[in-house]
Design goal:
Helix content: under 10%
CATH topology: Jelly Rolls
Shape: globular
Mean pLDDT: 96
Low-confidence stretches: none
Bound molecules: D-sorbitol-6-phosphate, zinc ion
Amino acid sequence: MTDYMMPFTRMVHLSDGTIPDAPLIQTRRLSDLSGCFADSDAENALSAANPIIYEVYEATQNPEVVGHLRYSTTVIRPGKVGDEYHMTRGHYHALGDRCELYYGLMGEGYLLLQTPEGEINAQRLTPGAMAYTPPYWGHRSVNTGKDNLVLLAVYPADAGYDYRTIADQGFAALVVERDGKPEIVPNPRFVKAGLQPE
Ligand code: S6P
Ligand code: ZN
């Protein structure tokens, strides 16, 4: 007999992106992103304050099996480390062929995507923008605005996370402030998949 899961609803507060009864809320501080920002002197200067960079409200703990979806909101605080804008750690999906949909709720920024070979793509995130991460693209969100960047993400529940590859290779591009505006520039420290850093 089919074991029916009960339907459910979660409220997403459109005023701030919070999900009040989220079963899991993750707070990511600067120390959780150790080594992610290019300017280590700027990172060290902020280490005592260890500011919150972003929060993730996991709206579901649906079983991690094919057929289910999970969804969450991400609230990235405004700010920079050196000249690099606040961003998420970034990941590939552990099951690389799993995709993802982002919907911009508040603020402005980019969904920065890359292939393991280092091809970069940036999708602008603004309220109402629906950005699609196809299979095999690593992804990270970047807040280039003055207010919180708030995103809703929907993804296959079995997608999982591969943070290791991003930790090892970094992202091929950085989003930095130049003359008061965001610019996407190459990351000199990026390591292509399969190559070792010097
Ligand atoms: C999950 C989805 C988001 C991120 C969140 C935080 O596939 O992409 O929910 O987990 O934006 O980013 P990160 O890189 O710290 O998981
Ligand atoms: Zn993802």
